[in-house]
Amino acid sequence: MVFNGAEAFKGGASAPSLEREVSVTSNNNRVLLDSQELNAASGAFNLCCGEAYARFSELKRLKVHPGNMTKERDAVESCSADVYNGIKSSCVEQFDAVMSCLSDNPTEWAKCASMRRELEVCSVKNNLGELKKLSS
Fold this sequence. Notes:
The chain is mainly alpha-helical. It is 60% helix and 0% strand. It has helices spanning 7-10, 35-48, 50-61, 70-90, 92-104, 113-125, 131-135. The longest helix is centred in the middle third of the chain and has 21 residues, at 70-90. It starts with 6 loop residues before the first helix and ends with a helix.
């Protein structure tokens, strides 16, 4: 039987289930971003948090119950917050340029590709997110 989403509400055998021993953590390293900020920083997030994002995405693909993914969700949130805070302190000029370009070109984001690339390069040069582990 293939899990189709509706099974989660019926308690079907193929629905993801919550383990009895669920790890619930409190991640204090969070930022709240609006859709424009998230869009502008998305390339940097993917480059600088690739491992955390891949692990989280794989568990979603495997239909693991969200309650059993607390550690992975916290890793994504924490890494994203680190990258965003790093961008705001080290790459603010590039970030603002991407934000402005996306705002000025709401239906032609391709015009912002070079600015996105500059933000991504700045993020990597500053070893944001998981990259700081690689540089140590």
